[in-house]
Amino acid sequence: MALKLKGDREISKTLTIKQKALQINLNEHIYGTFAEIGAGQETVRNFFRAGGASGTIAKAMSAYDKDFSDAIYGIEDDKRYVTEARLRKMLNHEVNLVEDRIKRDKHPDKLFFSYANTVATIDFSKKFKGHGWVGVKFQLDPLEDYNEIIIHIRFRQTNSQLQQETLGMLGVNLIFGGFYMHDDPKELVKSLYDNLESDQIEIDMINFSGPRFAYVDNRLMSLQLVKNGMTEAVMFGPDGNNFLPASELYKKNILALRGSFRPVTLVNMDIYEKSKKLFLKEKTVEEKNTRVIFEITLDNLRAEGKINERDFLDRAELLCSLGQTVMITNFQEYYRLVEYFAQFTKARMAMAMGVYNLIQIFDEKYYRHLSGGILEAFGKLFFKDLKIYLYPLKNHETGEFVTSETLKVHPRMKELYKFFKFNGKMLDIKDFDPEIMDILSRDVLKMIVSGKDGWEEMLPEGIANVIKDHRLFGYSRRRSLSRRT
User: For the whole model, what pTM was predicted?
Assistant: First the structure.
């Protein structure tokens, strides 16, 4: 017995939280447990209030006391409770209990589920607004394995009661989406904000898994969060699974490289290798405590008008194949990226960039929305322990290389530039490879699309094979062969 979606997305948009809970309650097949820690039992409360909950709820519980919680779910290695590891233990434990206590021979058509959350709401000083992990583990066919959706949230409200109510509504949206919108994950992601506003809660990580989501690329789901305004930044690792930025960047030294990486070239990797070498020479930087991030802005993904998801995945595929961590952000200005990092660490940060990008940083037009203009932006950019590693620009007319020493900025910016330059905030990458300075991503892309020979040598080792094997960036073997003949 497989569950079918009742009604299309337009209908589900009009459903209230009570209507969603009632629709689940009236489905005789859905049956499971609720385990909620840290913000009351606000999700299951919606199901009780909707009516008909006896056919849906096998158990509802909250293990607020740490000793009780440890006795039920075990002790975490890091002794923390609001973690992804804790949430997964909760989901697995509760599902196993349902399977053990509700016999399949008596209930052959039941679709078991477990909903869980572990959260910390706003503290008394109101300095920490709170965050949490929320997830649902569920069946869509009794003969299939379980599917799972796990999200991380950040509260934006400053009232604990409002946070609890928001969490309760989010939980209903998540359970409803899992059972009734699983065949359209992108719409499922959007539906998490049904009856909610973006200023109530932020979702900054999501991962899908299980047989019904085997085709889902979690990197693409991560992109949806930024695209839909649910968060400002997301991260994913070489394996394609999404990271929680707060956990990955906490107290870390951070080196960020911004680019289009369309595709990633020898120049990109030269910047990476040389800037990392400089970064690790810093007295306060240790390699084991360092995170290197390849960042792509949403504006860059929209460069051709609208976001091309296939193009995004092509870029992600190459960076992941190189073993890199990728971040997608909504930060057009560099200072906003630095402010974001500063939420998680006080350790040294660095940004590697080309001369052209530095010229843009000193362009006043990007800061007209700030009351303090460019001075305010630079205060935010360099107030933290930040360094810029500058990769030279080749002047194709003269053959000379433009560095921080020879760079010309607008006359009004000259003194400001000198101030930051001679305060040691900028450092030239001097051991660059002059033989690759003519390589531009846009030229390589044109060669790939047109089938022109020679682009393979402009990319890091193995990348050309990935592009060919997976037909990335419009590569066509037939077109390439026809060009050669």
Answer: 0.90
